[in-house]
Amino acid sequence: MSRTDIEAVEEVNTAFYEAMERGDFDALSALWLEDEISCVHPGWPVLSGRGEVLRSYALIMSHTEYIQFFLTDTKVAVIADTALVTCTENILSGGPAEDGGELGPLVGQLVVATNVFRRTSEGWRLWSHHGSPVLTESDEDDEDPSS
After folding, report:
1. Residue among 75, 77, 76, 71 nearest 92 (CA)
2. Where does the SnoaL-like domain lie (predicted)?
3. Are 117 and 127 in contact (CB under 8 A)?
4. What is the 3-state secondary structure (H, E, C) of 41-107?
């Protein structure tokens, strides 16, 4: 494993999030493998196959006016032709405003993600994305579990 493999995977991982931020469906689609892929968005069932996965991103992009990802805790491991990236997605997003052309209220969310890449002749491509929400104290019940 060379440093250049890790750098290449980091670049593709970054490109994935940048395509989401720009709402660039073509760029996002080009980052995925052509064959069997899978995706789990927070709170969604497992999506399998290129058509189903890419439809989910088209749906998210069409319903999201603004989204920005701040990635933290990013770790990259490369073994042969497979790479694993884990990170925390600090997401800031907003939808259309109720009235007028201004952006709706911004909402912050924390998601931990695992992105799996495979090396191809065209470079590293996404094989699987799995996002899971991070529960914050405000999301938990205030009840004492011992009572």
Report:
1. 71
2. 9-134
3. yes
4. CCCCCCEECHHHHHHHHHHHHHCCCEEEEEEEEEEEEEECCEEEEEEEEEEEEEEECCCCCCEEEEE
Mean pLDDT per 10-residue segment, the chain (147 residues): 84 98 97 96 96 97 92 97 98 75 77 98 97 77 51
The distance from CA 5 to its chain's CA centroid, rounded to whole angstroms, is: 21
Task: Reduce the DSSP state of residue 144 to 3 states and report it.
Answer: coil
What is the C-alpha separation between 10 and 78, in angstroms, rounded? Answer: 11
What's the predicted TM-score (pTM) here? 0.85
Kindly state the tokens that stand for 76: 């990259």
Residue 6 near residue 78, CB atoms below 8 Å? yes
Phi then psi for residue 129, to 5 deg, are -125, 135
The secondary structure of residue 136, as a DSSP letter, is: P
